Amino acid sequence: MRRILLALAVVLVGSLGVVTIATADESGRVTEAVVPPVLEPPATLAYAPGGDASGVDPRASATVSVKDGKLDDVTLTGPDGKAVEGEANADGTEWSSTTELAFGATYSWSGSATGRDGAKVPVQGSFTTLKPNKTVRGTINIGDGRTVGVAAPIRIQFNDHVDDRAAAERALSVETSVPVEGSWGWLPDEGGGSRVDWRPREYWPAHTKVTVTADLFGVPYGGGKYGATDVTSSFEIGRSQIVKADATSHHVVVIRDGQQVFDFPASYGLDSDPRRNTRTGVHVVTEKFAERRMVSQQFDYDVNMQWAVRISNNGEFLHAQPGTVSVQGSENVSHGCINLSPANAKSYYDSVLYGDPVEVTGTNVPLSARDGDIWDWTLSWDDWKGLSALDS
């Protein structure tokens, strides 16, 4: 049997990695072939937003990514010369900003990436964020660390009109330490600005911890207006204190954590004059004053009253009134406020929190939106939910 000889020789020629392959066939004849070198690809960069982009949403993350290579270093610099915070992924192929950008600002890329071919490619370029026609600021009515009553609504008050209420509402959230059902409701603009309240379905559970987050920066409100800044607040619901104020009883009963703690003789608004009736409905305590000047051109009085607790912006207070002590507990003669003796008014004043409910019953005139600032509880739950800008 004829022996078959096979030979293989590989020779590297030159610095470019040219490969020559020599082979021998059965007869021993040698042939040579040159194989082209395998070249590694260079790095290719991609940017989001793209190069020289304008009108960029400042809430969006700015990203640079590399194909066929790794990022060496990346810096995104703002107009103030400071680097924007960001981080790369685990394999070094993408870098993203991790903080919000500013309105109407130009940001520049710098750094480099190394391709699989060993060559460096510069990270470079710039983009510009959008410039609003106007920024609109929102504020939360309950500050950090406060303790409030069980009927306190959460309010975001804007300093201008918000057209796109749905966009604004989607940026709002409420977290609670125990499950609480609630909903946002948009109220008529006041003072030229929009306002939205979050109300629980029922009164807050006592001692609930609440965190409100309003991620409003950069939210488009319509008409070239955008949210100016994010706002947050963390607070706590206090003990449950509910005032049962039945005008037909001529008394005020205070229930704290399910137990009666006070039963005060009182005088409500004059029954025979609808203008002077105390309004029936759930009022909410908003302020209290050790002494408060009360003026009415309609009824021609200008007096100072002690231990005054405001329960509506229509002028209704619980306050001390020495002049009606003789009829407190038997007649309703006031101009709409709930009169108590000085001692009883002081006891109630000392016990009260912002957001405590005062449930007035037994009069012929209901509390309504025109009567004051907080009328959230005058609506049924279904009607309240109907004030949301989002589909339920």
Please describe the topology of this protein.
Elements: E1 7-13, E2 18-24, E3 30-35, E4 44-48, E5 63-67, E6 69-77, E7 86-88, E8 94-97, E9 106-115, E10 120-122, E11 125-128, E12 134-136, E13 138-140, E14 147-148, E15 154-158, H1 165-170, E16 172-176, E17 182-190, E18 193-200, E19 209-214, E20 220-222, E21 225-227, E22 231-237, E23 241-246, E24 251-256, E25 259-265, E26 281-284, E27 287-296, E28 301-310, E29 317-320, E30 338-340, H2 342-351, E31 357-361, H3 381-385
Parallel strand pairs: 12-21, 14-22, 23-31, 29-30
Antiparallel strand pairs: 1-2, 2-3, 4-5, 5-8, 6-9, 7-8, 9-10, 9-11, 13-15, 15-18, 16-19, 17-18, 19-22, 20-21, 23-24, 24-25, 26-31, 27-28, 28-29
Question: Can you characterise this structure?
Answer:
The chain is mainly β and 392 residues long. The chain has four domains: 1-38, no CATH class; 44-128, Immunoglobulin-like (Sandwich); 136-238, Immunoglobulin-like (Sandwich), CATH 2.60.40; 241-378, L,D-transpeptidase catalytic domain-like (Beta Barrel), CATH 2.40.440. It has three helices and 31 strands. The strands form eight sheets. A five-stranded mixed sheet has the order 25-24-23-31-26, with no helix packed on it. Strands 4-5-8-7 form a four-stranded antiparallel sheet, with no helix packed on it. Strands 6, 9, 10 and 11 form a four-stranded antiparallel sheet that branches. Strand 7 (86-88) and strand 8 form a beta hairpin.
- Largest sheet, described in full? 5 strands, mixed
CATH architecture assignment of the largest domain: Beta Barrel
Here the CATH topology of the largest domain equals L,D-transpeptidase catalytic domain-like
Tell me the Rg in angstroms: 36 Å
Average of the residue pLDDT scores: 92
Range of helix content: under 10%
By helix and strand content, what is the structural category?
Answer: mainly beta
